[in-house]
Amino acid sequence: MKIKAIFFDLDDTLFDYERCHQAATKRIFEDIHKITGTPTELIPIIFEIAQKEVKTQLLWTAASHNKDLYFQKIFEKINNQIKNKIMAKDTVLIYNNYRKTFFSTLKKERDTVYLLKYLKKKWIKTWVITDSSNFVQLNKLIHLWIDDKIDIMVSSEEAWMDKPHSSPFLLAMYKLDVKPHECLMVWDSIRRDIEWAQRLWIQWIRLNRYHKSNEWVIPSYTVENTTQLYKLIKWLIK
């Protein structure tokens, strides 16, 4: 198979998102405790409930990933008598502290950069398909030093729908003028990313950083980090 394009997920694929997220949530849980006096052991539970409610309310949309909505909902949950008196400055403070800690923890991965440079030399098109808002994800590309090595990015905000809906994928293929059989996919999530690839018989690689179960699917290939991914893709397209 002649591969003309490779599309990548971003979070937990081209970098270790979970590490950054855990550091950032730890920081804002401490902030919420200071602002509200809520016991620290309860805040992660309230955060999870708030996140699920927002995602259910805004199902399959980019807005369902907005952290500021989670944080606003947390304050509402902590005291449901003050829904109309939530201090905007508290939500903004929490959001800014989350982003500051997230990006200060984020580390570019050497082999991600090497891989994307290699694909450019081989004239293979690259794009990122990702959930969440366009602005947030573009900032991640910049902090990872790969913004100039990606041909295009399609966010669920631009495509109007989250993965695994076909809209982000179809929009990406339209922009790069490639067909499914000319593509290779690299993802981390079984439920969100793989279903669409299987429908179109696209060859795909799972980057499984945390050794999660493959559930009901068998990946074309599985790697555990971007070093292994770089070696595998070089072998596939040599």
Give a written overview of the molecule.
The protein has ten helices and six strands. With 238 residues, it is an alpha/beta fold. It has two domains: 5-16 and 107-237, HAD superfamily/HAD-like (Rossmann fold, 3-Layer(aba) Sandwich), CATH 3.40.50; 19-105. The longest helix is centred in the N-terminal third of the chain and has 20 residues, at 17-36. It is elongated, with a radius of gyration of 19 Å. The termini are close together.
Helix/strand layout:
Elements: E1 5-8, H1 17-36, H2 43-57, H3 67-78, H4 88-105, H5 110-121, E2 125-130, H6 134-143, E3 152-155, H7 156-159, H8 167-176, E4 183-187, H9 190-199, E5 203-207, E6 221-223, H10 226-237
Parallel strand pairs: 1-2, 1-4, 2-3, 4-5, 5-6
Give the number of domains.
2
Strand order of the largest sheet: 3-2-1-4-5-6
In whole angstroms, the N-to-C terminal distance is 11 Å
Q: Would you tell me the structural class of the helices and strands?
A: alpha/beta
Indicate the mean pLDDT.
85
Strand content: 5-15%
**CATH homologous superfamily assignment of the largest domain:** HAD superfamily/HAD-like
Rg measurement, Å: 19 Å
Q: What name is given to the CATH topology of the largest domain?
A: Rossmann fold
Query: Helices and strands, in N-to-C order?
Result: EHHHHHEHEHHEHEEH
Number of helices: 10
Could you name the CATH class of the largest domain?
Answer: Alpha Beta
Q: Helicity level, as a percent range?
A: 40-55%
Question: What is the strand tally?
Answer: 6
Unreliable runs, pLDDT <50, ≥5 residues? Answer: none
Assign the CATH architecture of the largest domain.
3-Layer(aba) Sandwich
CA-based shape? elongated
